Amino acid sequence: MSGHEDSGRSQEQQQPRGESRNPCAVSSCCADGAIASEPRETRVLYDEHNVEAGILETPADESSALLGNTDGRYESDGGGGGGGEQKKGRDWDDLPAQGDPSWAREIKMVLKSSPPLVLTFFLQFSINATSVFAVGRLGKQQLGAVARLATSLDTLCAQAYGDGRKHLVGLQCQRCFWFLCCAAVPVAILWLFSEPILVHLVDAETARLASSYLKVMIFSIPAYIVFETGKRILQAQGFFREISYIIMFVAPVNIVINWALVWKLELGFIGAPIGVVISRNLLAALLVLYIKFVNGSQCWGGFDKKAFVNWGIMVRLALPGMVMVLAEWLAFELITLLSSRFGTDYLAAQSAIFTIVALLYQIPFAVAVASSTRIASLIGGGVVDSAKLASQVLVIGSFLISALNIVLCISLRWYIPLLLTRDEAVIAIVATTLPVVAVAVFWDGISAGAHGILRGIGKQSIGGPANIFGHYVIALPTSLTLAFHFGWKVKGMWTGITVGLLV
């Protein structure tokens, strides 16, 4: 991490950072953001030495890290990173002492690391939005789901770095890269043969164009995976601004590339996906070059054959993240498709509302990502009391940001739609629906904070079932009933979503 909050204290004055009672478990989160301690079942935990040795650990409690090592021995780099033992996280200057939690310190960490991530997510959103054709949205759900698998690194990399075993950050990213490559194969096959599927959803010409778009987008998948895994190397070390700088450079270049391909070279429709492919490969290349030649390579121990084994805990952490994003996206897509039943104006209004919601979500999500990295680092360093406090800061921060979003949605409901359309009928539908949407945005922001805590403590498995239940058992039936049976139309759709998020 880049901050040094306790630099005023001498090394002799600092207390040793606390060791958790058992360094082989993760913390669990209560409703108020606190971390409880409960015994868990005996299991083989993810530690490089113990897994390979086949050691079965003693029962773990909820106050320690996934990447623990009970005997204090650490795996050598094995990949050119220098053998021997690795030092514990207590040599980190920015980790506080056990028993010395500080609200000011944790708030400062959030305020310092969140703005670059907000900018990063907004700029990434702008790169995706450069495809002006509606077909450009097709495929983003599947690719986003693949990227969501990389959220396991938010837990594993941050805990490894906080525990002082920096080489494990690079090893985890290698594992995740190959895992994502495997997960991307069915996505690529689906895109390659998408036309026979799409003709059953849209007209034949739209299906043909969409299929052509997706075939070109296949070439962006490797770069997308490199970027999503590579940026976790920097995030685990607390380097958030560096990612923003890279995207700030690529975003305007992306606009120029799309303009040149679509209009200057007159490639037309097919120029849009080609532009996205070029931009995403440029993002990946610049990120790799930055890590290699500027900063971040201290966590890279070289390529290692161990990247092809011990995928168990990564899969257990990653799949729930994919389930969470797919459950939510598919629910929103179903609502968008069903909105077309009310006419073109309502479909356009729903698309505009979806864009507004996606933009407003970037802020609480960025804060949640920054906080989850901090929480995981503190747990990895054995500073559990500060991890509890960081969780509470995230809960309060999510509430305040979500409250601001709800105020913006309601007070500017007649002005926000003007950024997306000039059609008066569509503006009226969006404006009258935004007060309901604002409540959904509020609870969506609270949910983002809760999921951030779950990622930080390695409890992603809770989020998937919760999302499925909320969206498909509660939200969709309520949305359909209010929209069609009671005639509330789009407003009824979003009322159902709000109820699902609240549950």
What does this structure look like?
- With 503 residues, this protein is mostly helical.
- It has one domain (106-502).
- It is built from 16 helices and two strands.
- Strands 1-2 form a two-stranded antiparallel ribbon.
- A hairpin with a 5-residue loop joins β1 (28-29) and β2.
- α13 runs antiparallel to α14 (424-456).
- The longest helix has 37 residues, at 344-380.
- The chain is globular.
- 51% of the residues are buried.
- This is Putative transporter.
- Residues 1-26, 53-98 are annotated as: Disordered.
- Belongs to the multi antimicrobial extrusion (MATE) (TC 2.A.66.1) family.
- InterPro entries: MATE_euk, MATE_fam.
Tags for this model:
503 residues; mainly alpha; two-stranded antiparallel ribbon; Putative transporter; membrane; antiporter activity; xenobiotic transmembrane transporter activity
Give the SSE map.
Layout: E1 28-29, E2 35-36, H1 48-53, H2 103-129, H3 140-148, H4 152-162, H5 167-192, H6 195-198, H7 204-217, H8 221-236, H9 241-264, H10 271-293, H11 312-339, H12 344-380, H13 384-411, H14 424-456, H15 463-485, H16 489-502
Antiparallel strand pairs: 1-2
Summarize the structure.
The protein is an all-alpha fold.
Number of domains: 1
Percent of residues in helices comes to 55-70%
The number of E-state strands comes to 2
Biggest sheet: strands, sense, closure? 2 strands, antiparallel
Mean pLDDT: 72
Question: How far apart lie the N and C ends?
Answer: 36 Å
| SSE succession | EEHHHHHHHHHHHHHHHH
Low-confidence stretches: 1-93, 132-155, 158-164
Shape descriptor: globular
Enumerate how many helices there are, as a single number: 16
* Proportion of residues in β-strands: under 5%
GO molecular function, one term: xenobiotic transmembrane transporter activity
Protein name: Putative transporter
Keywords: Membrane, Transmembrane, Transmembrane helix
Family: Belongs to the multi antimicrobial extrusion (MATE) (TC 2.A.66.1) family.
